[in-house]
Design goal:
Blueprint lengths: L8 E7 L4 H15 L14 H9 L2 H8 L3 E6 L1 H4 L6 H21 L4 E3 L1 E2 L12 H9 L6 E3 L19 H10 L3 E3 L11 H19 L2 H4 L5 E3 L10 H10 L5 H4 L4 E4 L5 H10 L5 E2 L23 H6 L5 H15 L1 H9 L3
Parallel strand pairs: 1-2, 2-3, 4-5, 5-6, 6-7, 7-8, 8-9
The structure holds zinc ion.
Zinc ion binds next to strand 1.
Length: 348
């Protein structure tokens, strides 16, 4: 809204607190893969508005009010996407259910939540199969972004890199609709990679390196990716990545990547945010907490929740008031242009 009092937009929230009925339905769906006689119908899932309201009011909304954030871009629980389970039909039904629930939350709390879609990806399946769901979520549900899983196998990495033409149908759709994608893996089914501690951070780092190796943004100059979890290891190793880009005869990363990729602030301690804000240009940093998510405890060194990332952004010495306004509000409105349109309509 203004430099003095920005809207605090959290670009990374998931519906991790959905009523139990959702998980129970999913478990039946998974059982139905082996035994079609127990496969549930979509209509078997019944969750009332009151149940949805309670699951948000007692959780995310309470914390948003306590911490002083206004609006969350809200997508289905990432670890539950589990694109490796079943075939594309299983994924399509599951994505459609999860996206609809996020839409309903955004309708119940229009001032506090706006949707981003999970995709009905499935290992080895042409990403074209996701386009109808993207259209539906943007046009019918007013969603402002998507989560794109670069590894639908769940930790085995057998899809082509993000720069491969394999993914182009999704990118063409993103450009057409002017929506960004958060590059976000799901649960790891590879025992070597802990889901949120290793697989997520690996994927963020891997995505950055894939983008350095390729020339994707030459083909799609307006394509926008959000690299979550503070960009994985990339900001910490920015010198390595600048050096590798140089070896590969790529342009400077400012030209090669930073018109198109953005890092969120889901880094759960002050030194991490200090590093991010020192190394990465402020125009490429978006406020986010991924609350309520992977790390739910209180840091005994500070007495505050690890994922209360707003306080780190406020405390870092590397941001002026104007730059904080960019991180909290202006950058999100620029990257998520449909969010900006929605806020403008509300006079915000
Ligand atoms: Zn996430």
């Amino acid at each position: 809204m203004s430099l003095q009092k920005p809207l605090i937009i959290d670009v990374h929230g998931h519906y991790t607190t959905a009523p139990k009925a959702l998980e129970e339905w999913r478990n039946k769906q998974i059982a139905g893969i082996k035994d079609p006689t127990v496969m549930p119908k979509v209509a078997d899932l019944k969750i009332s508005d009151d149940e949805l309201r309670e699951s948000i009011e007692l959780n995310q909304l309470t914390k948003m009010k306590e911490r002083g954030s206004d609006l969350t871009i809200f997508s289905p629980r990432a670890s539950f996407m589990a694109h490796h389970i079943g075939d594309v039909n299983i994924s399509s039904t599951w994505a459609s259910i999860c996206n609809e629930l996020c839409y309903r939350v955004s309708q119940l709390f229009p001032d506090h939540f706006i949707g981003a879609a999970m995709l009905p990806q499935s290992p080895g399946v042409d990403p074209k199969t996701c386009l109808a769901e993207i259209d539906r979520c943007v046009h019918d549900y007013g969603m402002v972004g998507i989560n794109l899983n670069p590894d639908p196998s769940g930790g085995h990495w057998n899809s082509p890199p993000l720069t491969d033409r394999h993914w182009y149908p999704i990118y063409e759709k993103m450009v057409e609709l002017d929506i960004p994608a958060m590059i976000h893996v799901s649960t790891s089914c590879n025992a070597c990679f802990h889901t949120t501690g290793a697989h997520y951070i690996n994927a963020d780092t891997t995505a950055v390196m894939q983008l350095i190796q390729g020339d994707l943004f030459r083909d799609f100059p307006t394509l926008k990716f959000v690299i979550p979890h503070g960009g994985g290891a990339a900001p910490y190793h920015w010198g390595r990545y600048r050096g590798l880009a140089q070896e590969l005869k790529k342009p400077l990363l400012v030209e090669h990547l930073l018109k198109n990729i953005f890092f969120d602030t889901c880094v759960y301690h002050q030194p991490g945010i200090d590093l991010l804000t020192k190394v990465i240009p402020v125009d490429n940093i978006l406020f986010a907490s991924e609350m309520i998510g992977a790390v739910r405890g209180i840091d005994p060194e500070t007495g505050h929740y690890y994922d209360d990332t707003k306080r780190y952004v406020l405390a870092t010495p590397h941001l002026s008031q104007e730059q904080r306004y960019k991180v909290f509000e202006a950058n999100a409105r620029r990257v998520y242009s449909r969010l900006d349109v929605a806020l403008n309509k509300k006079g915000l």
